[in-house]
């Protein structure tokens, strides 16, 4: 591609055949605007604001200082509660074990809520309530898994009893392949 400095360059506004309607225009009249000078930011005219001194007692203690004094929060069964919620919801929403998922889902949600309150209580300085909430979340997660096991056993037992009952309900049943003949 040619540029205005090349000898083969022609102005795109003037046709190449120099038609008579363009005779009044000289090629030197096609001027390009000069390049814009670069932007220079003016210096900052004001002095910076002076630092403000806040009283030290206005801020609560940082979590790092609380952890260094109290130690880490007690362990909870948050992951186990989440697992019980997922498995309970799966059994509740599936067509083969809907009754088996109600108790684990409810107990898992309660255990998860208890586990979430432990850190808040621990940072507030209520160590006894935080420890009690952690123990409660562990017990609720354990009971969620126990109720899931009981629900699965009861569901399997109900399916077996249903199959046995339907097999023995009509003694004059048609054997497979005979179609009542």
UniProtKB/TrEMBL annotation:
<keyword id="KW-0472">Membrane</keyword>
<feature type="transmembrane region" description="Helical">
    <location>
        <begin position="142"/>
        <end position="167"/>
    </location>
</feature>
<keyword id="KW-1133">Transmembrane helix</keyword>
<feature type="transmembrane region" description="Helical">
    <location>
        <begin position="82"/>
        <end position="112"/>
    </location>
</feature>
<protein>
    <recommendedName>
        <fullName>Interferon-induced transmembrane protein</fullName>
    </recommendedName>
</protein>
<feature type="region of interest" description="Disordered">
    <location>
        <begin position="1"/>
        <end position="20"/>
    </location>
</feature>
<keyword id="KW-0812">Transmembrane</keyword>
